[in-house]
Specification:
By secondary structure, the protein is α/β, with parallel strands linked by helices. The protein has 14 helices and 6 strands. A 6-stranded parallel sheet has the order 3-2-4-1-5-6, sandwiched between helices.
């Protein structure tokens, strides 16, 4: 029997956390966070984590799980999240998925290809090229070898670019070709609900959130991370909000400019998120124009989904 699993997706600042908590309270559920940055300790303000009261009210998984210098990816998330879902269902608890990291959602819902072996010699060769020529060089190599996969990636996501190059080198086929062949036995029916704001309103939400982050101590949070000895080059800190404040702290830009860049880069990130999710025809989209609509949509989902 397939179990229905409510899944809430959407861009940053769209109200996913709030709706997730409303639903979890109604269904006596636990939330599985599909956010690739909230999984790290100490990255609180800049990742808009649920606050202490929200975390105390509803149990969240994959929040504050890792040190900032630990590596994690969508494949790890898929494996761990499926185990947690199984355990929750065995204990008569309802899992609700909430998150905006598209690759994490895809990994959990559809599975992620991870079976081609690692070629350490070739990987070291790619790492040397990255060191000498930079991310754009690797990305250009992928565009020549596998333009379809390159079109779905950003040059700064060099680990994904490198893996795609490695798979093509080992098999002669694109990583997308192998992913399409990969099928996981489905025992869960992920019911995907997306939150859709008019773009100007979403951007207003983003600007307001960034202002709140600065007021609530984002600069001090970044200073604290660096004081703990974490390198500014960590993947976890290559995140909108953190990298701009690091540039400010190093004297490269003013605080005002850092705030402008955080707002601009967050808007760009939100646009990429929506582009990713809109390609999934399974998502049921809900129009939201105000905070009042958050409660309306939550009630609609509660009434439309027979979870137990």
């Amino acid at each position: 029997m397939e179990h229905k699993i409510i899944t809430i997706v959407g861009a940053t600042c769209s109200g996913k956390t709030q709706i997730g908590i409303i639903l979890a309270s109604k269904f006596d559920a636990e939330i599985i966070s599909a956010d690739s940055r909230q999984i790290y300790k100490y990255l609180n303000i800049g990742t808009a984590k649920p606050d202490k009261n929200e975390l105390a009210k509803i149990k969240h998984h994959f929040i504050n799980l890792l040190e900032p210098n630990e590596n994690y990816n969508a494949s790890h998330f898929e494996t761990a999240a499926l185990k947690i879902i199984d355990n929750l269902l065995k204990n008569k608890k309802v899992p609700i998925i909430v998150g905006g990291s598209g690759l994490y959602i895809k990994a959990l819902v559809d599975g992620i290809f991870n079976s081609v072996e690692v070629d350490e010699e070739y990987r070291n060769e790619l790492l040397e090229k990255k060191k000498r020529f930079g991310d754009e060089y690797l990305y250009a190599e992928l565009k020549k070898a596998d333009p379809e996969s390159a079109a779905k990636m950003l040059s700064q996501n060099w680990k994904r670019v490198m893996r795609a190059l490695e798979v093509f080198h080992l098999t002669g086929q694109s990583i997308g070709f192998h992913q399409k062949k990969y099928k996981r036995n489905k025992k869960f029916n992920f019911r995907l609900h997306g939150l859709k704001w008019e773009r100007s309103l979403l951007y207003e939400n983003i600007d307001n959130r960034i202002d709140d982050m600065i007021e609530n101590g984002l600069v001090s949070e970044v200073e604290s991370l660096l004081d703990r000895g974490y390198s500014k080059n960590l993947n976890s800190l290559n995140t909108v909000g953190y990298k701009e404040i690091i540039s400010y702290l190093e004297g490269e830009i003013s605080l005002g400019r850092a705030i402008e860049l955080i707002k601009r880069n967050t808007r760009r990130y939100a646009k990429r998120q929506l582009t990713w999710f809109r390609s999934d025809e399974r998502i049921i989209w809900h129009d939201i124009k105000s905070q009042k609509d958050i409660y309306r949509v939550a009630e609609l989902i509660i009434n439309s989904e027979e979870i137990r």
